[in-house]
Amino acid sequence: MRAQVLIFLGAPGAGKGTQATEASKEFGIPQISTGEILREAVARRMPLGLAAKAKMEQGELVPDEVVCGIVEDRVSRTDCRNGFILDGFPRTVAQAVFLDDMLERRGLGKPLVVNLQVESDVLLKRLTGRRTCPVCGKIYNIYFSPPRQDELCDVDGTPLQSRADDNEGSIRRRLEAYERQTRPLIDYYRERTLLHETDGNREPPVIARDLAGELRYS
Ligand code: ADP
């Protein structure tokens, strides 16, 4: 891959996290997920988490200056010096402008942006059906990849949990926030000829295999 920075763009439930994890293994550069960093800050009751918790549970975006600060901090660590993968950032045009400036300051060049396109009924099932094991982190979906025993983890038998923001009201607001604030980024990156479109309706391993091949030569 010529670019040092890879961005996964897509609606909630599009599979950004899953594909970012695969690409991180494939290209040997770290994955930075702003959603994960924020959820960890909430779980550890850090000041950052307290500020973000209500917004996240309601399905609204956390303020730009907060997430831009998180990204700048994370990117400053030495494991990011040869590049990194962003999952869930940028999500607004202001964040994209900040990122452009940050990459230039750090001499990291232009990013490569993968847009995962997924139909809205698939998105809804992925979000409402998502369950996670709080102990080992394994992710299930009651429609597409259910555990062997209802609501229990296959690995350790722990009762599965839904994410606090995977409820109906919050899912609706996250999809609205995506339409209004994040979708404009598709044009932003297309105009800069940095956009790579992918069919995100396919099975995750199929997408990952395709992307690994395509991105290697982009
Ligand atoms: P999803 O893409 O499934 O909605 P994420 O894990 O990426 O989930 O994000 C969860 C929540 O964290 C978002 O709904 C939002 O409140 C907050 N968040 C994550 N990344 C950003 C960002 N770049 N800008 C603003 N808020 C963010």
Short description:
The chain has 218 residues and is of the alpha/beta class.
Give an overview in words:
By secondary structure, the chain is an alpha/beta fold. The protein has a domain at 5-118 and 180-215: 3-Layer(aba) Sandwich (Rossmann fold). The protein contains nine helices and seven strands. Strands 2-3-1-4-7 form a five-stranded parallel beta sheet, sandwiched between helices. Helix 2 (34-43) crosses helix 3 (47-58). The protein starts with a strand and ends with a helix. The mean pLDDT is 94. The structure holds adenosine-5'-diphosphate (ADP). Residues 12-13, 34-35, 38, 55-56, 59-62, 67, 88-89, 91, 95, 165, 174 line the site of adenosine-5'-diphosphate (ADP).
